[in-house]
Write a structure and sequence with these properties.
Blueprint (H helix, E strand, L loop, with lengths): L9 H7 L2 E2 L1 H8 L3 H9 L6 E3 L2 E5 H31 L2
Antiparallel strand pairs: 1-3, 2-3
Helix pairs in contact: 2-3
Length: 90
């Protein structure tokens, strides 16, 4: 039975794991663990509990990010209109 120390390849660990803990998922997403706990509490992000710990599937996070990024695109297209409206009212 071979055990790994856990410190080697720390940077790529979150990228290669299908199931991640809060720390790994927060690194993968580029947010703080506190922010991730907040998203979980608000049910904004796909997560599940394993025992009493939150876990995140990489494939579900990737899917969630894809959905969120496509939701943002229409809003980005509306911004110039708002900017031109503000400029017109000056």
């Amino acid at each position: 039975m071979k055990k790994t120390g856990g410190n080697e390849d720390k940077g790529t660990m979150a990228d290669s794991r299908e199931v991640m803990n809060i720390r790994q998922a927060s690194q993968y997403l580029g947010v703080s663990p506190d922010t991730l706990y907040k998203y979980v509490g608000e049910q904004k992000i796909p997560a599940f509990k394993l025992g009493n710990r939150w876990r995140f599937k990489k494939s579900r996070l990737d899917q969630w990010m894809e959905e969120k990024s496509s939701e943002m695109e229409p809003q980005a297209k509306r911004k110039p209109k708002a900017a031109s409206k503000a400029a017109g009212s000056q």
